[in-house]
Amino acid sequence: MSRIIVITSGKGGVGKTTCTANLGMALAQRGHKVAVVDADFGLRNLDLLLGLENRIVYTAVEVLAGECRLEQALVRDKRQPNLVLLPAAQNRTKDSVSPDQMKKLVNALTKVFSYILIDSPAGIEMGFQNAIAPAKEALVVTTPEISAVRDADRIVGLLEANGIRNAHLIINRIKPAMVAQDKMMSVKDVQEILAIPLIGVIPDDEKVIVSTNRGEPLVLAAEASQRGLAGQALQNIVRRLEGETVPFLDLTPPADDFLARLRRLFRPTE
């Protein structure tokens, strides 16, 4: 049976699309047939992060309008044949597609693909309703910032209200040194607020920015050093999705950062 997973958040810019591209690629690397669906009509970006923007001919809107077959709109990734992209239309609004139409599209994909990952737009309006309509599971992405966490909490409530109770949390762009200095929310802080199971913690890493700009998902890097801790964390999320028990990465800051914090604590006050 196919797994239909929506990747969502309340706040924009927290890394949903980056997670979708990398998790889709990592699942395909493990031998699964994977379709990633861009549900952000009007503001699509998933094609850019996968480096497939120049290969789009048809989009989901043309499929629904009967102007092409679903197979014609699917863009296959030449680097990983198990992965395909169903792109969103860039010149249509989110209202141009209905939740029922999204269900129809995704249900057609389940005949071929074992994983369908839906990249949800930010916010809680029609685009969000479209993205969650066909989903059976959810990955809620947030950064450890109070505004992002508050918006994610709203999303968790909406997922439950729409019958999606199998939701897991991804905390993105965490900076261990800032957490140690009490300048950033910790993983535990975020977990206590959102109260859904944690499936991944991704450290802040400039390699993510480089890979995004190149249209090359980080998990494609041949060497572990090129993937960095962020790439390893993304691969670990996929392993947990598949039921493996994988310990979370040790993101304890280096000893010199810890000692610096101690020195600040015991510095004489003026």
Structure description:
GO terms for molecular function: ATP binding; ATP hydrolysis activity. This is Septum site-determining protein MinD. Pfam families: CbiA. This protein is of the alpha/beta class and 270 residues long. It contains 12 helices and 8 strands. The protein has helices at residues 16-29, 46-50, 60-64, 70-73, 99-109, 126-132, 146-161, 176-180, 187-194, 206-214, 224-241, 255-265, and strands spanning 3-8, 34-38, 75-76, 83-86, 115-119, 137-142, 167-174, 198-203. Helix 1 (16-29) crosses helix 11 and helix 5 runs parallel beside helix 6.
Anisotropy-based shape: globular
Q: In DSSP terms, counting alpha (H) and pi (I) runs of 4 or more, how many helices? A: 12
Question: Helix share of residues?
Answer: 40-55%
Taking all residues together, what is the mean pLDDT? 93
As a percent range, the share of strand residues is 15-25%
Largest sheet: 8 strands, mixed
As a whole number of angstroms, the C-alpha radius of gyration is 19 Å
